Amino acid sequence: MPDPHSRLGRRVALDPIVAERLRHLQLTAAEAVDGFLTGRHKSPRRGVSVEFVERRPYVQGDDLRHLDWKAFARTDRLAVKRYEEETSLEATLVVDASHSMAYPESADPRAFSTKYDFACQVAAALSFLVLRERDGAATALFDHTVDRVLTASTSPTHLQSILAALSEREPRGETDFEAVMGRLVNALPRPGIVVLVSDGFGDPENLGRAFGMLRARGHECVFLHVMHHDELTFPFEQLTRFEDLEGDTKLMVDAPALREGYLEALRAWRAEVRRVCQGRGVEYELLDTADPLERVLSAWLGRRMARVGNRR
Asked: Which of 33, 90, 118, 166 is most buried, by the most CB atoms less than 10 A from its CB?
C-alpha cells in the first residue's frame, strides 16, 4: 500500500467519518440476485431454504423430501413445496480511469481534488460496506478497455487488494463504454449488482448499449455519475483556455459569454443520460465532487434502502 500521507495514499484511505456515517447502511439488492454463498439476498433460483414460497402439483421424479404432507392430508393430493433460495450479494465496482477523470490536473502531489480521486473514495467506501456485510466485492478499472479486474471475494483482507488497485492507477486513455462492458460482462460469472462510477462523458446511446449488455445478463445496474463542481457550475470569470483531456482540442474562450450556452447544453446532455438509464432500468445518481462524500453516499443509500424495503 502507498504511504498514507501521499496523494496516492490519501486517495483511497477510508475516512473514519465516512465509515461511521455508513455504519447502519447497506448496498441492498433491489432485484433478485444470484450470488455464490448462502446469505441474506433473495435469489431467482428455487431451492431449499427457510422461506416457503408456494406449492405445485407433484410430478414423477420430484424429490420426496419436499412433499407437503399437511396439504396431502387436507386435499388428498400430492404437492411439492417450493422455496426461495437466498444468496449473498455480489457487487462489482466499475471505476472510470480514463483521462477525463483527471480533472482538474495539478502538478502538486499533495492535491486531492480530481474526479478520479473522488471516484476512488466512492469505490473504497462501497467496497468496505459490501465486505462488512460479508458479501462479495469485485472491482474493475477501465478507459477504452478493461484495465484490471479483481474478482469477487468476501474476505475482509480483499479490501486491501481493491485499495491498492485503485491507488496505483493514474487516469489515462479515452472512454469506450460499450467495448468495456462487452468485455466485462464475460468476466462476471453470475448476476449481481454492477455500480459504474464515472463522469459519463461520451455518447449517451453508447452508454445505454453498454448497460443493455449487463441488463440482458440479469445484472442490476447503478450509475453513480461523478462530476466536478466546476463542470456543473462553470464558475470561470475571464478569458480561459480549455483542453480536451481525451483529445487534442484546445480552445481559448470568453468564459462569461459562454456560460449560459454551456449550462443549457449540460442540462440537455444530463437529461439524455438520465433518459437512457431509465430506459434500461438503471438507477442513476449524480455525485458532485464538492459535496462531502459521507453525506452524498448516506443520503443515496438511505433512499435506496427505503425504496427496496417498500418493494418487499
From this structure: 90
Cα(87)–Cα(43) distance, rounded to whole angstroms? Answer: 6
195 and 256 Cβ atoms separated by less than 8 Å: no
Q: How many CA atoms lie within 13 A of 82 on its CB side?
A: 9
The residue assigned the cell 441492498 is 28
pTM: 0.76
Domain count, the chain: 2
Judge if 229 and 161 occupy the same domain.
yes
CA–CA distance from 277 to each of 61, 172, 254, 273, 309 (Å)? 44, 25, 34, 6, 22
Instruction: For residue range 288-307, list pLDDT tens digits in order.
Output: 999 988 888 989 988 888 88
CA angle 242-247-248, nearest 5°? Answer: 65
Residue 233 burial (CB < 10 Å; 0-12/13-18/19+)?
Answer: middle
Q: Give pLDDT tens digits for 84-120.
A: 444 568 999 999 999 999 998 664 444 457 999 999 9
